[in-house]
Design a protein that fits this description.
The chain is built from six helices and two strands, in the order H-H-H-H-E-E-H-H. It is mainly alpha-helical and about 120 residues long. Strands 1-2 form a two-stranded antiparallel ribbon. Strand 1 (about 60-65) and strand 2 form a beta hairpin. Helix 2 (about 15-25) packs across helix 4 and helix 5 crosses helix 6 (about 95-115). It is globular.
């Protein structure tokens, strides 16, 4: 995994669910998905899918239509290339990508909890 791809993962994905949503949308091309379709296809809860879509919107990776339908839409060509690399890596080494996402979440939680430690 390149440093650039690792940084993209760190900054773009709040959970493995967000990655799964993104990859489904990316592999679907220009297809628009309703939230209910995403829930059914990924067998996730409405809350998990909704949180994932919000996270992906913030990362500039999806487009949400006025009717609430969602599709893949990278904000830049560079970002699109990183999604292609990520898709390829995930097909080959899914566990490594999942660990990178979970580790990032744990690092953020540790940083937050460290802010409350008493210093001597």
């Amino acid at each position: 995994m390149t440093d650039e791809l690792a940084e993209f993962i760190d900054t773009s994905f709040s959970s493995v669910w967000a990655l799964e949503v993104l990859l489904l949308l990316h592999r679907s091309g220009d297809r628009w998905w309703t939230p209910a379709n995403l829930v059914a296809e990924l067998r996730g809860s409405e809350q998990v899918i909704s949180d994932s879509v919000v996270s992906l919107m913030r990362a500039g990776l999806v487009d949400v239509g006025p009717d609430g339908a969602i599709r893949y839409c990278a904000a830049s060509a560079e970002q699109h290339e990183l999604v292609i690399q990520l898709d390829d890596l995930y097909r080959r080494k899914a566990a490594a990508v999942r660990r990178a996402i979970v580790r990032t979440g744990n690092d953020k939680l540790q940083t937050f909890s460290d802010a409350f430690k008493f210093r001597k």
